[in-house]
Write a structure and sequence with these properties.
By secondary structure, the protein is an alpha+beta fold. The protein is 31% helix and 24% strand. α2 crosses α3. The chain is globular, with a radius of gyration of 23 Å. The relative contact order is 0.09.
């Protein structure tokens, strides 16, 4: 099939959210309802085994035999688009005299569309959801009831921020570690507004490892455009540990080699309540 950004969005929403309608295209492309309807019909004509229209909800739903033509099976494609809705992929064109460049591509983590459709609905409608979850500390399926509020990209992976009834607190759940198809329940009493760590904004103060030479410290100060030899980064309290990990800053002990450590956390005592043990 020839690339088409509208077909890409139709397929993306149908696959990961479980439904798509003219309103979706009107909202994202500024189309008329007539043009949006024509695009949906054109997509259905090219991929006749993918969608079925449900008049009760006025939306197209994915058929069991749905086949991807414009999207990948990597959930990051959908979640990245959710962060930046205007950044639909561009069609592949013939090589030109552009500057050579390459972006590191990490292997995708397995997340099923059946799982995502329920989690997306629960997040948007503020519903509780019953799920099965595994972890390295507990690799056997464990049933949990959670109330999700936000999908979060930590750099290496996506997780879901949610209230956990078992832990009686807000926790981070790695998307690829859910199992089976969750069940939607009733409305939650623990919305995003009650998540203190999510709603608390903090500032990390980083500086070059003092064991480095002045010349080495100047290199890092220039790299990060530090002011007065310090880098200030504002983030949510619940994300501080992920940010430090991405910056390769060890807060428990200094690496034996300052060239490997590079940066240190200056205000560790202020952030101690939010750091992992």
């Amino acid at each position: 099939m020839e690339f088409n950004k509208r077909f890409w969005l139709i397929e993306l929403l149908a696959y990961w959210e479980g439904r798509v309608n003219t309103t979706s295209l009107i909202h994202h492309f500024g189309l008329s309802r007539q043009q949006s309807s024509a695009d949906l019909n054109a997509y259905s004509a090219q991929a006749p085994t993918n969608l079925t229209y449900d008049p009760s909800i006025k939306a197209y739903l994915p058929k069991p035999e749905f086949q991807r033509h414009f999207i990948s099976d990597d959930v990051a494609e959908y979640l990245n688009w959710m962060q930046h809705p205007s950044a639909a992929p561009a069609p592949i064109s013939a090589p030109s005299a552009k500057l050579s460049n390459l972006a590191l591509r990490l292997p995708p983590r397995k997340v099923s569309p059946e799982l995502m459709r329920v989690l997306v609905a629960a997040t948007r409608q503020r519903l509780r959801v019953e799920v099965d979850y595994v972890s390295l500390s507990n690799p056997n399926r464990e049933g949990r009831i959670i109330a999700p509020h936000t999908f979060v990209n930590t750099g290496l992976r996506w997780h879901l921020r949610a209230w956990c009834e078992k832990s009686q607190g807000y926790r981070d759940f790695v998307l690829s570690r859910f199992r089976g198809v969750p069940t939607l329940l009733d409305r939650t009493e623990h919305p995003i507004e009650h998540d203190t760590a999510w709603n608390t904004q903090i500032t990390l103060i980083l500086a070059p490892d003092p064991r480095l030479t002045p010349e080495q410290r100047e290199v890092l100060e220039n790299d990060y455009q530090m002011v007065g030899g310090q880098l200030h980064i504002s983030t949510k309290a619940c994300l501080v540990n992920y940010l430090l990990k991405e910056m390769q800053v060890n807060t428990k002990m200094l690496d034996g080699t300052p060239e490997a450590q590079q940066l240190v956390l200056v205000n560790r005592d202020d952030l101690k309540p939010w750091l992992f043990d």
